[in-house]
Amino acid sequence: MSRYLPPLNALKAFEAAAQCQNFTQAAQRLHVTQSAISRQVRHLEEQLGVILFERRPGQLRLTEAGRRLLPALSTSFDRIALTVRDLASPTDLTRLRLNVPPTLASRWLVPRLDDLRRRYPSLSLTLTTREVDDLAADSTLDAAIRFGDGDWTDVEPHFLMQESHIAVCSPRLLRDGRPLDLREQTLLHVMRTTEDRFPTWRHWLDAAGIEGIDTEGGLEFDLLDLAIRAALEGLGITIADRAMVARELAKGNWCSRWQRQCRGISPIGSPRGRGRAMNRH
């Protein structure tokens, strides 16, 4: 069966222009002139017999025909690029490049890597904890684990586990046998930015129905792992996901005198068009 397809350069020019919404930026992306992009798009419109863009001074907008063509074209190009990369680098099929928040990596994932290696002996793993703003645009990653509700664009979210936040402290705070009064304890916080805390303590207190606790003071850390270590040293009480402190709880290194749990969500997101090793295994 013969296929009628417009020239590849015309299709590439249309995709770039549609994604950039600008002929000049599309030309820069493809390393050609602006007039070349305009000419290729016009040629494509003539071949298809439809108008793909509404052209106005300083503005470029897709028509209904353009909006129909773009996703089909981008998906096809992604599949071609993926297949070509697989053929050129077959070893990538056994390598998983994963980005994970630092505390989740050190306290939850690393202890499970030995089991992962036994299950998938041919899988090679590259694990990073650096902060990545745009997962879909980072071509060095196959997948990432993030905290959230999974309502993200340009990634394929897969639910991993349900967080269960609990308040924990070192047993040394309970040496005299008296019940702990949160109003007399140092609260350990995790920072979201240099000037903003994660509201974990407030969420937990609201869920527990506990009032009258001043959450403004206490010690602050930029990593949950540091707050957990500070709590282990008896410096105060922190809120942590039960999965992050499971080993200490099992060994009796933690005390959790408050039964209330506060829930969150941890999905795993794989940037679209990648994650081949993860899909393979």
Describe this structure in words.
With 281 residues, the chain is an alpha/beta fold. The protein folds into two domains: 8-88, Arc Repressor Mutant, subunit A (Orthogonal Bundle), CATH 1.10.10; 91-281, D-Maltodextrin-Binding Protein, domain 2 (3-Layer(aba) Sandwich). The chain has ten helices and eleven strands. The strands form two sheets. Strands 3, 4, 5, 6, 7, 8, 9, 10 and 11 form a nine-stranded mixed sheet that branches. A two-stranded antiparallel sheet has the order 1-2. Strand 7 (187-193) and strand 8 (196-197) form a beta hairpin. The two termini are 35 Å apart. One of its GO terms (molecular function) is DNA-binding transcription factor activity. InterPro entries: LysR-type_TF_proteobact-type, LysR_HTH_N, LysR_subst-bd, WH-like_DNA-bd_sf, WH_DNA-bd_sf. Belongs to the LysR transcriptional regulatory family.
Summarize the structure.
With 281 residues, the protein is an alpha/beta fold. The chain has 10 helices and 11 strands. It folds into 2 domains: 81 residues, Winged helix-like DNA-binding domain superfamily/Winged helix DNA-binding domain (Arc Repressor Mutant, subunit A, Orthogonal Bundle), CATH 1.10.10; 191 residues, 3-Layer(aba) Sandwich (D-Maltodextrin-Binding Protein, domain 2).
